């Protein structure tokens, strides 16, 4: 890896294309370097992971809405939709929209955290949709996804969006465009223009993850993926983009991020260097914000040591800057203590999450967020006794480049009314590659089986798992077998009439 300096250049000092970040990413997308076996295996894991969480949310309202919109854009030979089976095809950008929303709805797929946040599995729905529509092979798909993960994770390592309240999908638009460039074997010139277009149209504020968090949190990455598909299409048809989108004097860095004097060092693979970034990402065992994963596991452990929750006087969570200010009391969001808050808000309240995990000793993607669970009187009392504290040591570990040091957990101290305290800490979640029970293929399959049980037929689950595990051998045109069908008549419908109202839902 080589760190590339990225800074603002005024028009009077026009930056040559070869030195622009978007051009370098386009060159990486076009690099024919082979994908390592470990990377290909992890890509299969993450496709399984995405399918699991998408099917689990297939009848949740945002997924139903996105699917209704997609079904209004039918296309013979197009891409498939989760739940609809192989015969229902829509335009690729609308499949990216619907499938991306289903994947994101439960906040239950993979993550990478560094200078900023990301869910790099969000690259998979749009790249897969284009692969299906364009008749690409399993190996093409693997190469495209490897690029998408690489670009997004490398941007997340170096460029902080959160400090300027820009939503993290601003790194996703360029990564999807780059991944599609690899998938379709596009020339760097085309991918370069698409990356810039995608970034230009996918910058939005983080209000989507602040205060009263709405269903838009599920739609946001899908929207970025859809816009990236459209950007690639325009670039393939010869259209250009605002350039240089990162380094221009009125570009993203100058006007939305650290300003004209900013300087970033973005790590990128050298020519011929394998794209391995996916191996540095990690999935979720629990359906909650990633920064809560280790703290949930820790709460399970601590909860067994408490007999009477009403004897608890105070619970302090010592953790990183990001955890404190995004999902902790440092966010200053009263909604994070509101029993009437939305699921999306509760998912971003570490105080709620720890309270339930302490009491239940388990976490469930539905039951742990039920309104009656959030309103339980003893839980509300405990919940409101929890606060977070930024700890410089945990912040340092959060930002470390050393995987042996990097951590997303914290320390929990429970103080009782009689003055006793119990304290414990956990650096990484049990499922993390360095955790107590690091996940391998059987864990991803178990998660898939758990989340799809009762939603799809067992035979359909077996078919999908058998198909995806031979992904490298799937020939051109066979990627539509990566869809999943739910039994006839079980897909929920949005009965409201919108602009794209359609009668095709099953």
Automatic annotation (TrEMBL):
Residues annotated as domain MmgE/PrpD C-terminal: 286-471
Domain MmgE/PrpD N-terminal per the UniProt entry, residue ranges: 20-263
GO molecular function, one term: lyase activity
Pfam families (UniProt xref): MmgE_PrpD_C (PF19305), MmgE_PrpD_N (PF03972)
InterPro entries found in the cross-reference section: MmgE/PrpD_sf, MmgE/PrpD_sf_1, MmgE/PrpD_sf_2, MmgE_PrpD, MmgE_PrpD_C, MmgE_PrpD_N
Top-level taxon in the UniProt lineage: Bacteria
Keyword annotations of the record: Lyase
Keyword hit for Cell cycle: no
Residues that span the membrane, as ranges: none
Family note: Belongs to the PrpD family.
The protein's assembly and partners: Monomer.
Protein name stated in the entry: MmgE/PrpD family protein
């Amino acid at each position: 890896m080589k760190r590339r300096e990225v800074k603002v250049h005024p028009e009077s000092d026009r930056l040559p294309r070869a030195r622009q970040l978007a051009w370098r990413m386009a060159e990486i997308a076009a690099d024919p370097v082979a994908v390592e076996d470990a990377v290909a295996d992890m890509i299969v894991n993450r496709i399984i992971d995405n399918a699991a969480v998408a099917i689990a949310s297939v009848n949740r309202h945002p997924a139903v809405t996105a699917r209704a919109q997609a079904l209004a854009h039918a296309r013979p030979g197009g891409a498939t939709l989760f739940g609809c089976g192989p015969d229902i095809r829509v335009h690729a950008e609308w499949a990216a929209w619907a499938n991306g929303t289903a994947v994101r709805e439960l906040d239950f797929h993979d993550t990478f955290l560094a200078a900023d946040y990301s869910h790099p599995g969000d690259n998979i729905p749009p790249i897969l949709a284009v692969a299906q529509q364009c008749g690409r092979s399993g190996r093409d798909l693997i190469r495209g996804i490897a690029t998408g993960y690489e670009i997004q994770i490398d941007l997340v390592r170096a460029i902080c969006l959160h400090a300027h309240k820009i939503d993290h999908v601003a790194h996703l638009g360029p990564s999807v465009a780059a991944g599609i460039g690899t998938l379709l074997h596009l020339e760097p010139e085309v991918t370069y223009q698409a990356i810039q277009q995608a970034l230009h149209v996918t910058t939005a504020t983080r209000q989507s993850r602040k205060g009263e968090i709405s269903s838009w949190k599920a739609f946001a990455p899908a929207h970025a993926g859809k816009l990236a598909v459209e950007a690639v299409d325009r670039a393939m048809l010869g259209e250009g983009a605002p350039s240089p989108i990162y380094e221009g004097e009125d570009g993203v860095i100058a006007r939305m991020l650290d300003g004209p004097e900013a300087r970033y060092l973005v790590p990128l693979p050298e020519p011929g260097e394998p794209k391995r970034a996916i191996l540095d990402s990690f999935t979720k065992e629990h359906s909650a914000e990633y920064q809560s994963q280790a703290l949930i596991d820790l709460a399970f452990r601590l909860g067994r040591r408490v007999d009477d929750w009403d004897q608890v006087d105070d619970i302090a969570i010592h953790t990183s800057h990001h955890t404190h200010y995004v999902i902790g009391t440092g966010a200053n969001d009263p909604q994070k203590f509101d029993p009437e808050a939305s699921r999306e808000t509760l998912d971003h309240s570490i105080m709620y999450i720890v309270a339930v995990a302490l009491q239940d000793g388990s976490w469930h993607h539905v039951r742990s967020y039920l309104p009656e669970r959030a309103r339980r009187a003893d839980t509300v009392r405990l919940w409101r006794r929890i606060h977070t504290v930024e700890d410089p040591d945990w912040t340092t570990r959060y930002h470390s480049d050393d995987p042996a040091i990097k951590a997303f957990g914290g320390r929990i101290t429970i103080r009782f009314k009689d003055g006793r305290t119990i304290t414990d800490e956990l650096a990484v979640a049990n499922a993390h590659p360095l955790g107590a029970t690091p996940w391998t293929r059987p864990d991803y399959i178990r998660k898939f089986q758990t989340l799809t049980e009762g939603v799809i037929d067992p035979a359909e689950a077996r078919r999908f798992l058998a198909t995806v595990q031979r992904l490298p051998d799937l020939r051109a045109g066979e990627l539509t077998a990566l869809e999943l069908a739910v039994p006839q008549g079980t897909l929920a419908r949005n009965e409201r009439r919108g602009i794209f109202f359609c009668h095709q839902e099953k």
